[in-house]
Design brief:
Number of helices: 11
Helix content: over 70%
Number of strands: 2
Structural class: mainly alpha
Radius of gyration: 20 Å
Shape: globular
CATH architecture of the largest domain: Up-down Bundle
Number of domains: 2
Distance between the termini: 68 Å
CATH topology of the largest domain: Zinc Finger, Delta Prime, domain 3
Strand order of the largest sheet: 1-2
Strand content: under 5%
Length: 213
Amino acid sequence: WLAKQVAKSGLEIDCSPLKGGDLVRWLNNAANETYGVKLDRDAAALLVELIGEEPGLLDTELCKLSAYVGDRKRISLDDVRGLVGGWRTETTWAMTDAVREGRVSDALDALDQLLHAGEAPQRLLGGIGFVFRKLAHATELARQKPLDQALKDAGVFPRDMSLATAYLRRIGRTKAEQIITALVTADAGMKGGSRLPERIQMERLLVMLSGVE
C-alpha cells in the first residue's frame, strides 16, 4: 500500500548512504547545528578516514571532539589526530612524514613500533594511501597547472603543502608517477597476491615511496 501511495504522489526518498563531499557537508552541518562548533575541512576529511562513513559513529566522535575543544569552538586537524587517532595515528603520520622527507630509517622504525603494538598492516596501508594517493593525483594535475595549485586541488592539507612540494620536487616526476602503482601493488599483495610476509611488503613500499636510492 505504501509503495502505491508513494508512486501515486510522486514522493521519492533518497536513502542512499552519504559519501564524499555530501558526507563532509553533513559533518560540518552537524558540528555547527548540533554541537555549536566549527569543523575544519581537513579535520572532517581525516575524521572520515579514521572512522569510516557511518553517520552514527561519526556523530559520536563529533560529540567527543566538541566537548574536548570546549570554549575554543573549533575542531582542528590536530584535535582529530590527537583525540580520535591516539598514539597509533600520530605514529602513522610520523612515519609518512619521514618517508616524504627521505628519512627511511625513521620510517622503518615507526613501522616496527606500530606492528609490535598490534596495528594491522592493512590499516597502516590505508593511512599511507590516504597521504600518497593525493600526491599521485597532484602529480597528474601538475601536467596542466602549477604544482601548488595541483596539490590544493588534490586535497592536500594546507599544513602539508610545503612538505608535499619538497617531496615531489625531490623524487622527481618519474618516481612520482609510480606512486599509485606501488600503492595498488601493495594492496593486492596484502590481499593474498604476494607470498612475502606483510612486514617485508610494507618495508618495500616505504622505501619505494621515499624515493631514496
